Amino acid sequence: MRKQFAQRIRWTIDHALPTVGTRLGARRGDPLARVVVATASDGDMGPLLREIRSDGPISFGRVGAVTVDHAAVKAILSTDDFIVARFGHDESLLGRIGTWAARGQLHPMEPPSLLVSNPPEHTRYRKLVTRVFTARAVERLRGQVTAIAGDLLDSLDPSDPVDLVRQYSGLLPVTVISAILGVPADERDRVLAFGEAAAPSLDMGLSWARFRSVEDTLAEFGEWLGEHLRRLADHPGDDLLSRLVEARDEGVGLSERELRATAGLVLAAGFETTVNLLSNGTALLSEHPDQLAALRHGGADWSNAVDEVLRFDPPVLLTARQAAVDTEVVGVPVREGQRILTVLAGANRDPQVFDDPDTFDVARPNASAHVSFGAGRHHCLGASLARMEGAIGLQSLFERFPDLALDDGAHRRETRILRGYEKLPVVLG
After folding, report:
1. What pLDDT, on the 0 to 100 scale, is given for residue 2?
2. Which has the higher per-residue pLDDT, 279 or 21?
């Protein structure tokens, strides 16, 4: 009974009430609310983001503040004056109820998840996993990633249309991260399914039915993860999770709950955003044959093209922070407690940083100046790995199937924060 009661409270606080508030705020013209509502559709957000940009570096409203300014986004994400705060989980009565209802949940938006932790806990968690994702460590995986991409492409039948998400862009990153984390080959399809079903867990505004489905999936994933960690404790391998389990057992690492939260997030985040990067990149290059020709004829390189994909159609649209103290951002005063939505997709189109920002240009000289991986202490751990997988995955695909073309039936995921394709049919040619 407590479980169902707590679940209903979580949905009310995290989804029902925010949905009502943002819809009402959007009708009244609140900039943050308008952005949140707009992310629920697959329409062009460009006009709205340009309108918000014209309001200055930070646009304030009753619901909260929002910025699409590149300098402001980087400053907010990089300074210690801002912290990650779970909306609806503060010291108010409603916030304390929400914290109680979320107690014990394995959820990417609940502590001790890296996504919502602040120092000193976040520093300790991140230090334990950072060494696996350094540029040097990632470079050692290049041959393995290339081989995995080749094997997956070998399995595709050129005579039949394929869903690229299901048969390539989803399988490549999940296979790579599974190898890093010691997941058996016969469990990888299950991990991919968990990631796809749980992706909306980062969002707000879920229906009751969708919320329960996500919660059930997270619970199943938690059970599977516990079993996987126990297997590694009994039969450790040369992988990150085995080392984390060993450190826990020696009393110098994470607690059981911290280990599960960190392992679950690294596993899911290790492929979910890269799935979007590969799918978004395939669609963009197919829709811009001149850019694909530039890559084929030496007018641009694949690594830079990946950064331009990340800039132009980022896998993560936005993230939020809360001011821990009275401060100032690019000359704009911000009071303690102020919540600010940083729109990564908007910062990536800032004309003060990117010339002709609404043009997809794989040779753009400063494409890597995007903020799609965030900044500061929460900068994406797997950024180097994602870039390498993106470059190898896209180059291998278009070299193997140079006549690849999009087929009918592509559609985006129904998620607000993660942006990518749920289905991307292609004709390989």
Report:
1. 62
2. 279
Torsional class of 83: left (φ above 0), alpha (ψ -120 to 50), beta (otherwise)? beta
Residue whose structure tokens are 């016969």? 186
Which residue, among 373, 345, 375, has the nearest Cα to 357 in the 3D structure? 345
Q: Is 205 helix (H, G, I), strand (E, B) or coil?
A: coil
pLDDT at position 93, please?
Answer: 58
Q: Please calculate the CA angle 73-75-76 and round it to the nearest 5 degrees.
A: 65
In the chain, what are the domains? 1-103+317-348 (3.30.43.20), 118-313+372-429 (1.10.630.10)
Whole-angstrom distance, CA of residue 303 vs CA of residue 139: 13
Q: Tokens for 386?
A: 């994602």
The structure tokens listed for 20 are 């009502």
Give the whole-angstrom CA distance, residue 64 versus residue 320.
10
CB 191: neighbour CB atoms within 10 A?
A: 24
Q: In whole angstroms, what is the distance from residue 96 CA to residue 319 CA?
A: 23
Separation in Å, CA 81 to CA 250, 362, 371: 35, 35, 19
3-state helix vs strand vs coil in the chain, percent to 5: 55, 10, 35
Q: In this predicted model, what pLDDT tens digit does every residue of 78-109 receive, in sequence order?
A: 999 999 876 655 556 555 665 655 565 666 76
Report the alpha-carbon distance of residue 240 to residue 180 in Å, rounded: 6
* pLDDT value of residue 365: 97
Pseudo-torsion of CA 247, 108, 141, 235, nearest 10°?
40
Taking residue 257's Cβ as centre, other Cβ atoms within 10 Å add up to: 12
Q: Is 120 exposed, middle or buried (0-12, 13-18, 19+ CB in 10 A)?
A: exposed
Q: At what angle do helices 46-53 and 31-38 cross, to 10 degrees?
A: 160
Which of 174, 167, 161, 149 lies closest to 397, judged by CA?
149
Show the tokens assigned to 70: 């590149």
In whole angstroms, what is the distance from residue 315 CA to residue 420 CA?
6
| The pairing of beta strand 421-423 with beta strand 339-343 | unpaired
**Are 363 and 294 spatial neighbours (Cβ–Cβ below 8 Å)?**
yes
Nearest of 389, 183, 411, 378 to residue 275 by alpha carbon:
389
From 248, 2, 228, 29, select the one nearest 105 (Cα to Cα): 2
Comparing CA positions, the residue from 176, 179, 221, 177 lying closest to residue 196 is: 221
pLDDT band with cut points at 50, 70 and 90 for residue 16 = confident
